[in-house]
C-alpha cells in the first residue's frame, strides 16, 4: 500500500518537474510527403508516378479544441493559425498550460469559418497581407499548395491549388477529429502525398475559385491530417 | 491581504490607463434618420472616432495607395458626383488602364450588405483591397502600402492620433478607410425634406413619385432607393466585356446576368448609368425600362410593360432629381483634407 503511495508521489513529482521545464502544451504540425518531412523545392514522386516539387504549402487551422479523458474540454479562444511550411515556427502552436490530464482527442477546422470570413478587416494570422485572402470574392483561402510537375502541361509546369469558399453549398472548411492518447505535446502530420495520390495533375492543376472541385479537394485535404 | 491590496492597486492603474486612453479619442455618433432601417455595418467592431475618420479621409484622397502614387480612391469616386467617376462608362486606373465596369457611387454604404456590381465583397472594410491590388486600378500590394505609410511621418502621426501608437497595419488602414466611407451619408435631399414634412413636391414631382412607386420602388426601395438583391434588367450583354454578373461569384445559374440594384440617390449627378455605363442620360435609362415587357427571362417586376407616355417619362426624371442632396455633394467634411 505504502509502496503504491510512493509511486504516486514520485509520479506527481515527475509531472511537476515536467510542468516546470515545459509549461505549455503544444500542438505540433509536421508537413510530410509519405512520412518523410516535406522540403520545399525538392523532388518527390507520387503514387501516381508524378514527379512533384512543392514551392509553397500554407493552410489555416482554426477552433482548436482539446478533449481530455476526464471529459473536460479546452477550447482555444480566437483560434486561427496560419501554418506555413516556409516558416517552421508557425507549425508549433502552444495553446494551453501543460497538465497531467490524458488527452483523448484534438479537434479543429481546416480553414476559416463563415462568420470570420464576413467579419471585415482582421489582423495577425488573418491579415490579408498573409496572401491567403481573395479580394474580388471576399474570403480566405483555407489551403494553398503550389509547385511544379512535368505532368502539368501548363506554363512552367506549374500547379496551383487555392482551396477555399465559405458560402453554401461550397463551404470548403473541413472539421477534423483526431484521436490521441497521451499527456504531452500533440503531434499531427499533414501528408501532402495523400493529396497527390488522388489528384490527376494532367487535368486538375489550377483551382483558384470556390466551387465543386474545391469541395472535392477540400475533402481530400482533410485526409492529409493524422496523428503520428 | 498585502497581495489583495497589490492586485487592487494594479487594477486601479490599469483602469486609469484605459480610461485615459479612451478619452484620448473623440467619439462620433452615427445618426440613423427616423423611420430608416438599422445599418448593416457593425459599428461595434469599429467604433467611430474623429481621429480615425480623419485618417480614413486622408487615405481616401491619397494616391500613396497606388503603385506609382498616381491614383487615389477619389480618382474614380469624386464627391461632387456622388463619389463616382463622372463621364466615364468604364473607369480607368493606373497608366490609363481600363476596367470592365462603371464605378459605383459611394452613398449610404452603412446600409449595404454586399459591395461591387456582382456583390463579391462581403464587408465594407475589405472592399479597398480590390482597387488597391487590381492591376488596372492601383496595382499595388497591401504590404507595400503598409510599408509606405509606416515610412511617412505624416501617417505615423495620423495613425498615432487614431490608434494611440504609430504602428501601421492593414487592419488599421482598412478600418480607418471604412470609417470615412461608412460616414458618406446622404439624407437631406428634397425627397427627404418632403418626407419630413418640411416642404412639398410640386405637381410634376408628385406625379413622378406616384409613377416611381408603381414601377420602380419594388427594387429601388425607399428610403435608400436600392436593394440587397441582384437582378437582371434586360440589358444585352456587351460582347466586348462579356460580363455575366453575379454568376461569377455564386456559380448559380439563376444569377446569370444579375447585377446589384444600386441606390438612385443623387442619380442626377452619377452619370453614366448601368454596370457598364452604357447610358449617358437618365432619359435613356427610363426609355430602356419603358421598352421592356413580355419577356420570360426578366424578373416579375419588369415583366409587365410600363407604357409611360413622353410626359410621364419627364415627370419620372423630375422626381428622380429630388433625390439630389447638395448638402452631401458639397459637405466640407467629405472634401479633400487641406492641411
Overview of this protein structure:
The complex is a heterodimer of chains A (228) and B (339). Chain A is an alpha+beta fold. Helix content of chain A is 18%, strand content 41%. In chain A, the strands form two sheets. In chain A, strands 3, 4, 5, 6, 8, 9, 10, 11, 12 and 14 form a ten-stranded mixed β-sheet that branches. Chain B folds into two domains: 27-185, Cytochrome c-like domain (Cytochrome Bc1 Complex, Chain D, domain 2), CATH 1.10.760; 190-326, Cytochrome Bc1 Complex, Chain D, domain 2 (Orthogonal Bundle), CATH 1.10.760. Chain B is built from 14 helices and two strands. In chain B, strands 1-2 form a two-stranded antiparallel sheet. In chain B, helix 9 (203-215) packs across helix 13. The relative contact order of chain B is 0.14. The model of chain B has no long low-confidence stretch (mean pLDDT 93). Chain A binds chain B through residues 117-123, 127-129, 133, 135-139, 167, 170, 210-211, and chain B through 42, 45-46, 116, 120-126, 129-130, 133-134, 142-143, 146, 169-171, 174-175, 178, 249-251. Chain A: InterPro entries: MbnP-like_dom (IPR046863). Chain A: This is Copper-binding protein MbnP-like domain-containing protein.
SS-based class of chain A: alpha+beta
| Assembly of the depicted chains | heterodimer
Estimate the mean pLDDT confidence of chain A.
92
Indicate the structural class of chain B: mainly alpha
Number of helices of chain B: 14
Number of helices in the DSSP assignment of chain A? 4
Please tally the β strands of chain B and state the result: 2
Q: Biggest sheet of chain A, in brief? A: 10 strands, mixed
Taken from the alpha-carbon principal axes, the silhouette of chain A is: globular
Task: Please compute the radius of gyration of chain B using only Cα atoms.
Answer: 23 Å
Runs of chain B with pLDDT <50, length 5+? none
**What's the helix-strand series of chain B?**
HHHHHHHHHEHEHHHH
Q: What number of domains of chain B?
A: 2
Number of strands of chain A: 15
Percentage of β-strand residues of chain B = under 5%
- Principal-axes geometry of chain B comes out as globular
GO molecular function, one term (chain B): peroxidase activity
InterPro entries (chain B): Cyt_c-like_dom, Cyt_c-like_dom_sf, Cytochrome_c_Peroxidase/MauG, Di-haem_cyt_c_peroxidsae, MauG/Cytc_peroxidase
Keywords (chain B): Heme, Iron, Metal-binding, Oxidoreductase, Periplasm, Peroxidase, Signal
Protein name (chain B): Cytochrome c peroxidase
Amino acid at each position: 500500500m505504502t509502496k503504491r503511495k510512493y509511486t504516486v508521489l514520485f509520479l506527481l513529482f515527475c509531472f511537476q518537474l515536467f510542468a516546470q521545464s515545459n509549461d505549455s502544451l503544444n500542438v505540433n504540425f509536421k508537413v510530410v510527403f509519405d512520412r518523410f518531412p516535406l522540403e520545399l523545392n525538392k523532388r518527390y514522386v507520387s503514387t501516381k508516378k508524378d514527379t512533384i516539387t512543392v514551392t509553397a504549402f500554407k493552410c489555416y487551422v482554426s477552433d482548436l479544441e482539446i478533449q481530455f479523458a476526464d471529459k473536460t474540454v479546452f477550447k482555444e479562444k480566437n483560434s486561427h493559425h496560419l501554418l506555413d511550411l516556409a516558416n517552421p515556427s508557425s507549425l508549433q502552436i502552444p495553446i494551453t498550460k501543460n497538465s497531467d490530464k490524458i488527452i483523448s482527442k484534438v479537434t479543429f477546422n481546416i480553414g476559416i469559418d463563415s462568420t470570420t470570413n464576413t467579419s471585415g478587416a482582421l489582423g495577425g494570422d488573418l491579415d490579408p497581407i498573409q496572401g491567403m485572402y481573395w479580394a474580388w470574392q471576399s474570403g480566405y483561402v483555407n489551403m494553398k499548395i503550389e509547385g511544379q510537375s512535368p505532368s502539368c502541361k501548363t506554363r512552367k509546369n506549374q500547379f496551383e491549388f487555392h482551396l477555399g469558399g465559405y458560402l453554401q453549398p461550397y463551404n470548403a472548411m473541413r472539421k477534423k477529429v483526431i484521436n490521441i492518447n497521451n499527456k504531452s505535446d500533440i503531434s499531427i502530420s499533414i501528408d501532402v502525398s495523400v493529396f497527390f495520390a488522388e489528384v490527376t495533375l494532367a487535368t486538375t492543376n489550377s483551382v483558384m475559385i470556390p466551387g465543386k472541385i474545391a469541395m472535392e479537394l477540400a475533402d481530400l485535404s482533410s485526409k492529409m491530417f493524422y496523428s503520428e | 491581504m498585502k497581495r489583495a491590496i497589490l492586485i487592487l492597486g494594479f487594477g486601479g492603474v490599469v483602469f486609469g490607463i484605459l480610461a485615459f486612453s479612451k478619452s484620448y479619442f473623440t467619439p462620433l455618433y452615427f445618426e440613423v434618420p427616423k423611420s430608416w432601417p438599422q445599418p448593416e455595418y457593425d459599428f461595434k467592431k469599429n467604433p467611430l472616432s474623429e481621429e480615425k475618420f480623419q485618417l480614413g479621409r486622408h487615405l481616401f484622397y491619397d494616391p500613396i495607395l497606388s503603385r506609382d502614387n498616381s491614383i487615389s480612391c477619389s480618382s474614380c469616386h469624386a464627391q461632387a458626383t456622388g463619389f463616382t467617376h463622372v463621364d466615364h462608362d468604364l473607369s480607368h486606373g493606373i497608366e490609363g488602364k481600363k476596367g470592365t465596369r462603371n464605378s459605383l457611387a459611394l452613398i449610404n454604404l452603412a446600409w449595404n450588405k454586399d459591395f461591387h456590381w456582382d456583390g463579391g465583397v462581403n464587408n465594407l472594410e475589405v472592399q479597398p483591397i480590390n482597387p488597391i491590388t487590381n492591376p488596372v486600378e492601383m496595382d499595388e500590394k497591401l504590404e507595400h502600402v503598409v510599408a509606405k505609410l509606416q515610412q511617412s511621418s505624416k501617417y505615423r502621426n495620423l495613425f498615432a492620433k487614431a490608434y494611440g501608437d504609430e504602428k501601421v497595419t492593414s487592419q488599421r488602414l482598412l478600418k480607418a478607410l471604412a470609417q470615412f466611407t461608412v460616414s458618406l451619408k446622404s439624407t437631406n435631399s428634397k425627397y427627404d425634406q418632403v418626407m419630413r414634412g418640411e416642404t412639398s413636391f410640386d405637381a410634376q414631382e408628385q406625379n413622378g413619385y406616384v409613377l416611381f412607386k408603381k414601377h420602380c420602388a419594388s427594387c429601388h426601395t425607399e428610403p435608400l432607393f436600392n436593394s440587397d438583391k441582384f437582378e437582371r434588367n434586360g440589358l444585352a450583354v456587351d460582347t466586348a466585356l462579356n460580363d455575366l454578373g453575379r454568376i461569377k461569384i455564386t456559380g448559380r445559374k439563376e444569377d446569370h446576368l444579375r447585377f446589384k440594384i444600386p441606390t438612385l440617390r443623387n442619380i442626377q449627378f452619377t452619370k453614366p448609368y448601368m454596370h457598364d455605363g452604357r447610358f449617358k442620360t437618365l432619359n435613356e435609362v427610363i426609355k430602356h425600362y419603358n421598352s421592356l415587357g413580355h419577356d420570360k427571362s426578366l424578373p416579375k417586376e419588369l415583366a409587365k410593360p410600363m407604357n409611360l407616355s413622353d410626359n410621364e417619362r419627364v415627370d419620372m426624371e423630375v422626381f428622380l432629381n429630388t433625390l439630389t442632396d447638395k448638402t452631401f455633394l458639397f459637405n466640407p467634411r467629405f472634401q479633400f483634407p487641406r492641411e
